[in-house]
Design a protein that fits this description.
mainly alpha
Length: about 280
């Protein structure tokens, strides 16, 4: 089946649920970044027009995700410290939290995505050519399709989503059986509408692949491996889910691809437990 056919099936599955529009601030930032004389002050001014977005951008910029050498007190400082490419990814991430309704299922999916994003940002320190902001953005967006299915069919999707924490293969089979598509394909629909980079779109689509070795592009393969490791760690630590052999092999596949040491994994586990404790308190 071609990708066009896959995406058409995904669109049919969520018929009646509108794909969220690219936020106006992101469209303006993209336009400014493409201009001949791009201005960091103009970028800051665009963000500052939305007080909710400004607060989320500053919160994220000063979080452990970005590891700034000193705190950013203003949006202008955050833009200068992070650079224009990083600030665009940060605005993508900050906008993601305000797209959908505030149901309990939405909160569960979003909380899981945030934990995965934090874990992926830390894991990216051991991966060449993947920045912390890219890893964090992919972590937030990799389950965007779940949010669409949760909006379309909340009662049934809640039971299906719970399988993702312990049995990812069965989870995908249940989605496909009920909706004739998967959250991966729906996530690509949303990512394309939001103009996400092609590597991020590819990783969203492939993050449930059974073996990273099947991914031909080196960078996408690394992004998929990061996603698999982070999902497994979050399921175990943040959610307390029992990890069967399937989830263990899911993590092992990612670790084998990236050759991350056990010491590094332990360090990230400790950081993730600290993050989870802070979120729970």
């Amino acid at each position: 089946m071609s990708m066009d056919q896959i995406l058409r099936q995904a669109m049919m599955a969520i018929k009646g649920v509108k794909l969220p529009e690219l936020p106006e601030e992101l469209m303006l930032i993209e336009h400014e970044l493409a201009s001949r004389f791009c201005s960091s002050q103009k970028i800051a001014s665009i963000i500052e027009q939305n007080t909710t977005l400004s607060g989320e951008v500053l919160r994220l910029a000063n979080s452990p995700v970005y590891k700034l050498r000193q705190p950013a007190d203003t949006i202008s400082q955050a833009v200068l410290m992070l650079g224009l490419d990083n600030i665009k990814n940060l605005v993508f991430s900050a906008s993601m939290k305000h797209l959908f309704n505030s149901s309990e299922l939405y909160k569960d999916i979003m909380s899981h995505s945030v934990d995965v994003a934090v874990c992926m940002a830390d894991l990216s320190e051991w991966v060449a050519d993947v920045t912390r902001d890219e890893a964090y953005m992919l972590g937030l967006f990799h389950n965007a399709g779940c949010l669409m299915l949760a909006t379309k069919d909340p009662d049934n999707y809640q039971k299906i989503f719970q399988l993702s924490h312990s049995n990812p293969s069965e989870y995908m089979k249940r989605e496909l059986a009920r909706y004739n598509t998967t959250h991966n394909a729906i996530g690509v629909l949303l990512g394309k509408k939001w103009h996400l980079p092609i590597d991020i779109l590819s990783a969203i689509y492939l993050h449930h692949i059974d073996s990273c070795r099947k991914v031909q592009n080196d960078r996408v393969r690394a992004l998929v491996a990061l996603t698999k490791i982070a999902n497994s760690m979050v399921s175990e630590i943040s959610l307390g889910a029992y990890r069967g052999e399937e989830m263990k092999s899911y993590e092992k596949d990612g670790r084998d691809e990236l050759m991350i040491t056990e010491g590094a994994i332990k360090e990230i586990r400790i950081a993730l437990m600290g993050h989870s404790n802070r979120m729970a308190s």
